[in-house]
Amino acid sequence: MELLENRIKEEGLVLPGGVLKVDSFLNHQVDAKLMMEMGKEFARLFADKGIQRILTIEASGISMALTTALVLNVPFVFARKKASVLMSEPAYVEDVYSFTKQETAHITVLKKFLPAGEKVLIIDDFLANGEAALGMARIVEKAGSTVAGIGIAIEKAFQKGHSRLIEAGYHLEALASIASLEDGKVTFTKK
Ligand code: G4P
Ligand code: NA
Ligand code: NA
Questions:
Q1: Second label for 4, Cα 20 to 30 Å away, from 19, 37, 112, 120?
Q2: Phi/psi of residue 13, nearest 5 degrees
Q3: Does the residue 157 lie in any domain?
Q4: Which residue, by CA, sits nearest to atom 20 of ligand 1?
């Protein structure tokens, strides 16, 4: 998606350790118009999949899952990273290990917000090692629903997540695919 790639070129900051900082439009300050365009693009990419629900994870997945849900006219739910005392109802819980943070999160979705027998689109802002996406996919499958696709805003194709999701048989679409962040430079995957 050219609009997103251009923003990454203009405002993205490459940090040591293969991390791309995009907090001026995605991870901290959020460009609502860009999120709307991303929602339209996700909706277009998965238009023929019969999507009935969207699942994302807090915090940064929410803004683009919201706009995608608006365009597709389906409900969306976000997994919580910490179960709150208010969640004393039956829930799906999956352990997701973050290599970036070197800690395990217990991602949680109440069962009542993930009915069985649906086609679910998983959305997230970044794909690195794929732990978050695979954790959400396990939750969808435990619920008796189908992962109809995985939509990622920015994938780092040089990390394991891309190939892990493809090998697991999921339909993966990334709006921007980064081949390398070497030498402080963003290189996009050739299409
Ligand atoms: P994984 O799920 O693909 O295995 O990724 P990992 O655990 O390594 O990522 C942990 C967090 O860091 C996630 O956000 C993920 O979106 C984010 N992340 C990974 N690589 C990058 C990167 O290069 N740039 C940026 N900006 N973020 C990256 P999170 O902790 O869940 O935070 P939130 O933003 O959703 O609150
Ligand atoms: Na993130
Ligand atoms: Na995220």
A1: 120
A2: -120, 125
A3: yes
A4: 128
The CATH number for 159's domain is 3.40.50.2020
pTM of the model: 0.97
Q: What is the pLDDT of residues 103-158, one digit of tens each?
A: 999 999 999 999 999 999 999 999 999 999 999 999 999 999 999 999 999 999 99
CA distance 130 to 53: 20
Q: Is 20 labelled a binding residue? A: yes
Q: Which value does ipTM take for this structure?
A: 0.94
- Bridge partners (DSSP) listed for residue 187: 180
Domain that holds residue 158: 2-79+112-188
CA of 116 to the centre of ligand 1 (A): 28
How many Cα neighbours within 13 Å face the side chain of 172? 26
Smallest-distance ligand from the CA of 98: 1
Q: Report pLDDT digits (tens) over 71-102.
A: 999 999 999 998 776 668 999 999 999 988 89
Report the number of distinct structural domains present in the chain.
1
Residue 43 domain-assigned (yes or no): yes
> Helices 61-72 and 32-45, interaxial angle, to 10°?
60
Q: Is residue 170 part of a domain?
A: yes
